[in-house]
Amino acid sequence: MKIVFHEKYYNSEYAGDPAAAPGRLDGIMEIISGNRERYEVIRPEPALEEDILRAHTGSHVQRIQGNRLLYEMSLLAAGGAILAAERAYGGNPSFAVIRPPGHHASADSCWGFCFFNNISVSLLRLWAEGKIKSAFVLDFDLHTGDGNINILLNRRDGFKVSILNPMSHDRGDYLREVREYMDDLKNIDIFVASAGFDQGIDDWGNLLYPEDYTELGRLMGEYSEKLCGGRRYALLEGGYNHDILGINVDAFCKGFA
Questions:
Q1: Is 157 exposed, middle or buried (0-12, 13-18, 19+ CB in 10 A)?
Q2: How far is C-alpha 60 from the geometric centre of its chain's CA atoms?
Q3: pTM of the predicted model as reported, rounded to 2 decimal places
Q4: For 87, what's the count of Cα atoms within 13 Å in the CB-facing half-sphere?
């Protein structure tokens, strides 16, 4: 399985929020680096401004450019998302361990530690290249990805996107909700997860166990194989307990690969 990562993602100086906290990615990459039979780490390049402008307004880009380091980091995160999407389209399931996250970034605004919408930038790159006409987004972060919804739903350019933000408060019901939604999907060209792990036991949501994340990954694998030749990728969003974040990411990837 491909893991998209750049050592610059360790940089915690671009923002003073929990999503940028020092040590956040260490546990994830320690597990990944220790399992080279399962994971192959690949290094991204920054996104181009034209990639960002498919999802965001010029005025929004200019605001982010006002902080040089933040802009550099946000371009690199979006570039990681694009690389994961391209590899997934080529038949390689991919997980991007990127910072900053993106699912709260809308076309002309952002909040929640997000700046550019990595999901939208990566999907719109594939769409602009003529590779996809539709996508399914599973956003299992504790907090609904309003940016994903605002940019990707109800588009006028013919790009069709389905988005699920599971709302169930029981872990069994949560997984059932995901499966039942996927049962109804049709005509999907690629699957992508806004992979936030703050629903985890001992994180903010205190709901999902590692085996539940494995099942979410397995469901994405099963249904992407059924509907679009297995094309699937995931981008890291939330998750704030550093002691368990790596365990939960690894658990998801076990099912997802």
A1: exposed
A2: 21
A3: 0.97
A4: 24
Residue type, 255: G
In the block, which residue shows the tokens 């929004």? 60
What tokens appear for 200 in the block?
């985890």
- Secondary structure, 3-state, 106-145: CCCCCCCCCCCCHHHHHHHHHHHCCCCCEEEEEECCCCCC
Report pLDDT digits (tens) over 145-165.
999 999 999 999 999 999 999
**Residue-wise over 93-115: b if at least 16 C-beta within 10 A, else e?**
bbbbbbbbbbbbbbeeebebbbb
- Report the length, in residues, of the chain: 257
Q: Give the Å distances, CA to CA, from 11 to 23, 47, 95, 174, 249.
A: 10, 18, 19, 34, 20
Q: How far apart are the first and last CA of the chain?
A: 6
245: nearest Cα among 11, 25, 32:
25
- 193 within 8 A of 137, measured Cβ to Cβ: yes
Q: In this structure, is the dihedral angle defined by the CA atoms of residues 75, 81, 83 and 89, taken in order, positive or negative? A: negative
Rounded Cα distance between 71 and 67, Å, is: 6
pLDDT in tens, 89-141: 999 999 999 999 999 999 999 999 999 999 999 999 999 999 999 999 999 99
CA distances from 96 to 42, 67, 88, 179, 227 (A): 9, 24, 11, 23, 22
The residue assigned the tokens 């590899």 is 87
